[in-house]
Amino acid sequence: MAAKTKFQAIRGTRDLLPPETALWNHVEWTAHEVFGTFGFGEIRPPIFEPTELFARSIGLETDVVSKEMYTFRDPTEELDKILIDVLRFAEEKGITFGFGSDNVETPAKVQRILSEQPLLQSESVTLRPEATASVCRAYIEHGMQQLPQPVKLYYMGPMFRRERPQKGRYRQFYQIGAEVLGGGDAPAIDAEVIEMVMTFFDKLGLTGVELDINSIGHNAPDCRPAYIEKLRAALEQVKDQLGADSQHRIETNPLRVLDSKLEHEQAIIATLPRIADHLCPDCAAHYAAVKRQLEMRGVFFKENWRLVRGLDYYMRTTFEITAKGLGSQNAVCGGGRYDGLVELLGGPPTKGIGFAIGEDRLILSLQESGKGAAPQGRDIYIAWMGERAYATAVRAAKDLRNSGFSVELPPTELKFGKALERADKLGSRYALILGDNEVSEGSWTLKTLVDGTQQKFTEPELLEFLKQRKSGS
Ligand code: AMP
Predict the structure, then answer these.
(1) Which 3 state secondary structure label does DSSP give 261?
(2) What's the whole-model pTM score?
(3) Phi, psi for 117 (deg, rounded to 5)
(4) Residue 8: helix, strand or coil by DSSP?
(5) 364 alpha carbon to ligand 1 midpoint, in Å?
(6) Would you state the torsion angle of the CA atoms of residues 379, 380, 381, 386, taken in this order, to the nearest 10 degrees?
(7) Does 175 sit in the ligand 1 pocket, CB within 6 Å?
(8) Looking at ligand 1, which residue's alpha carbon is closest to its atom 21?
């Protein structure tokens, strides 16, 4: 007999359950609604893509690509099928395979040898760790540069990263994000994208929201690269006082030293040169205009010179939004401009800006501030007894559900006392009592469960009464 296995969700993944899923739905509907009012349309890219897409767009040196991706080889099916058919045929006929002069192998052994060489027969695919790369791939693949520009797209769904799980950090987590592709890099585009996220958070009643912005210039010699050299020189001066990670980054990616959360490095970092003072005139003007545009829209922000991205195609505007109640993982949204990305992926030169909201953290923050979903009870529990009453109850349930009420119809007969007890436990608002007497008299009893009051109605009166209560409450 097989041993009993107790299955559990894999570490870093979890089940989202009612009533919490009602809050997830509310958040997602609000996103559809708000993003729609800004003229964005939804894109649903696949959940896995060629590994190369992420390696190229996110960068080989990032933690995401180097350590955290769920990557596997996907055998190309046709080749595999043919091969297996050939080997099966050989097995049946007792054919063996010779390698060299005296190295004779059975078909089963050949299959094993081939399966150990996955590169020959399979391609590497990865569960998406984020969706920006997929959206850019789709933009190129579907020739969206032919559409009126810019193209404004949003998405929502699960992402996968093999991170160390903790509060607000999961291996399967959910993002809601948007991208604006093509059509120039007017500062108004940056400001409107940020305004859209803030409007969304506002609609949800998210509290303690703080928006940080920065500009990281662009990749021309007189702009970011010149700054990076200054930064590197300044870091060399204080190298001995930095931890091993930061010391390493002086060489590989000095901007990332600014991300450091190490307590003892903070005072040192505060003395380093700041990028805003080293932007080229165009980038400085763009940054100033984005700030003006945010002010025009009544969006409050804080400048944070340490908000940087370590990849070349990121440029100019970067932003991050934090919210209350999340501890150390308090970033709910990260975004920025990435004008070189579409081209890097093989498309035409295309401006781009976008953001990704961590939906898990957004939900956590809403729950912490008391905006979680209340358990949802049924509107109506139908307590029925008797054959004739049951037929009527089935019909009543259908009519009430068609009118939008949530109805619980017990599948087997219960004594009225027991049925009312169940109705109570389910948090039902009303119990509709249907016995054979009620049915033959055409007079139905509706019990309001909070106060125990009862009223009698004819069938049409009842529906009318419930509808009025629903719209009135
Ligand atoms: P990123 O794509 O890394 O810029 O992340 C954007 C947002 O996604 C972050 O601000 C977080 O809110 C969220 N996020 C990123 N990684 C995780 C994770 N492992 N678990 C939960 N949320 C995450």
Answers:
(1) coil
(2) 0.86
(3) -120, 60
(4) coil
(5) 13
(6) -170
(7) yes
(8) 169
